[in-house]
Design goal:
This protein has two domains: 33-292, Aldolase class I (TIM Barrel, Alpha-Beta Barrel); 308-410, no CATH class. The protein is α/β, with parallel strands linked by helices and 411 residues long. 42% of the residues lie in helices and 12% in strands. The two termini are 34 Å apart. It has helices at residues 52-64, 79-91, 104-113, 126-133, 137-153, 170-182, 199-210, 228-237, 259-269, 281-292, 313-321, 350-359, 366-381, 388-398, 403-410, and strands at 33-36, 69-73, 95-101, 117-123, 157-163, 187-192, 216-221, 242-245, 309-310, 341-342. It has 15 helices and ten strands. Bound molecules: manganese (II) ion (MN). Residues 41, 193, 220, 222, 251-252 line the site of manganese (II) ion. The site of manganese (II) ion has 6 residues, from loops.
């Protein structure tokens, strides 16, 4: 059952100070920008498709939360996609970005859609150049240069991605970075397209790229080994200005770095600033969950049902006294618009049961609390859910009076 012990904050709760142990050192960086790709890479999740309304609704929340860039889609894809991207560009304050291959019709469609930023990408790893592009390194480089020039001629902000950068020959990658910088790109996105980076290797790579470009750096990481958010943060530590993330981490295969994980890690663990209104993260997650038809696992960081739930006796008792005991301390449910829950089940202790009974208006003695706790644990051990009505049934069976009844007796 749910016991709501917190209510959502009315104003953003930011940068809670809890400097103990490893949290003492928070000097890696001061700010990080957020590029959301829920509507582009997120939509490329197998079996996910967003309607025009889905895209507009999700973009509206991202925009209101202060997301720096919204990658709204791939304008050349279809008329409906073109219209959605175009309208998002018109109606949001965030920078709207449209994706384009290094192909004229893609770039013209992106320019015509009215987006403020065009994200041009081309494969640079040999495996993709040969078996996906069926081209040569020289052709790839020339198309990239031509495409960046065309975007800049149109007066639009340009982001260039050497796709599969982490599996690209390093000398060729640097050659590409220098060529597109020379062609005038504003941003270089470094994509770990197949999710093979490690935090240490990715850090070195971002640092090296930074030595060969004057463009701002952005990172795009995938979660094939569960390292997407760690790699994105490592990129920021190495000097990248911005990370590409998706809500609930949806995206190709195992997905992208999760919006909620990245933002909260920056705000809470690094004590740095994203400028995002984090109190709407839970609402945003639920919206994307419903529209993408991709259920959020209960143990998902920040937005999963269990992210701020406690069942075991020691943890629940600690949290009732001070939530910092068994929560991060630097991140609270209020900060993300969630509520803390004390779940009743096999591992429940007397403190949680007492709290539930008192909140429900009962006035139990200590032996009555222990009796209800035994019943809760037995029911939980049978793998059954202990709901609010089960708890009240136990309380009535044992004959626990309500506060009013106790007062009537006293009177
Ligand atoms: Mn991707």
């Amino acid at each position: 059952m749910q016991c709501r012990t917190t209510t959502p904050a009315l104003t953003p709760v930011r940068a809670i100070e809890f400097f103990q142990g490893t949290l003492n050192a928070t000097t890696e960086f001061d700010t990080a920008r957020v590029f959301d790709t829920t509507l582009r890479d997120g939509e490329q999740s197998p079996r996910t498709s967003f309607s025009y309304e889905d895209k507009r609704d999700i973009a509206a929340v991202l925009d209101e939360m202060g997301t720096h860039v919204i990658e709204a889609g791939f304008p050349v894809n279809s008329d409906a996609e073109f219209e959605a991207v175009s309208d998002i560009a018109k109606y949001t304050d965030s920078t709207t970005c449209g994706l384009a291959r290094v192909v004229d019709k893609d770039i013209e469609a992106a320019i015509d859609s009215g987006v403020e930023m065009i994200h041009v990408f081309v494969s640079t790893s040999d495996v993709q150049i040969e078996d996906s592009m069926h081209a040569t390194r020289d052709q790839v480089k020339q198309r990239a240069i031509d495409s960046v020039r065309r975007v800049k001629e149109a007066g639009v902000e340009c982001m260039f991605s050497p796709m599969d950068a982490t599996r690209t020959d390093e000398d060729f990658l640097i050659e590409m970075v220098e060529a597109v910088t020379e062609a005038g790109t504003d941003w270089i996105n470094v994509p770990d397209t197949c999710g093979v980076a490690t935090p240490r290797r990715f850090y070195d790579m971002i640092q090296t790229i930074g030595e060969h470009t004057t463009a701002r750096i952005d990172v795009h990481t995938h979660d094939d080994f569960g390292l997407a958010t760690a790699n994105a943060l490592s990129g920021i530590e190495a000097g990248a200005h911005q990370a590409q993330v998706s809500v609930n981490g949806i995206g190709e295969r195992a997905g992208n770095a999760a919006y909620e994980e990245f933002v909260m890690a920056v705000e809470s663990v690094y004590q740095a600033d994203t400028g995002i209104d984090t109190t709407r993260i839970t609402e945003l997650s639920k919206l994307v969950e419903a529209r993408s038809d991709m259920p959020v696992p209960a143990n998902k960081p920040v937005v999963g049902q269990n992210a701020f739930s406690h069942e075991s006796g020691i943890h629940a008792a600690g949290v009732i006294e001070n939530s910092d005991t068994f929560e991060p301390g630097v991140m609270t449910p209020e900060m993300v618009g969630a509520t803390r829950e004390l779940v009743l089940g096999k591992h429940t202790g007397v403190n949680a049961v007492r709290q539930h009974l008192v909140e429900a208006g009962f006035d139990p003695t200590e032996s009555q609390v222990r009796a209800v706790t035994r019943k809760v644990k037995d029911r939980g051990a049978e793998k059954e859910r202990v709901t609010a009505s089960t708890l009240f049934e136990f309380a009535r069976d044992i004959g626990i009076p309500t506060v009013e009844e106790t007062e009537e007796v006293k009177a």
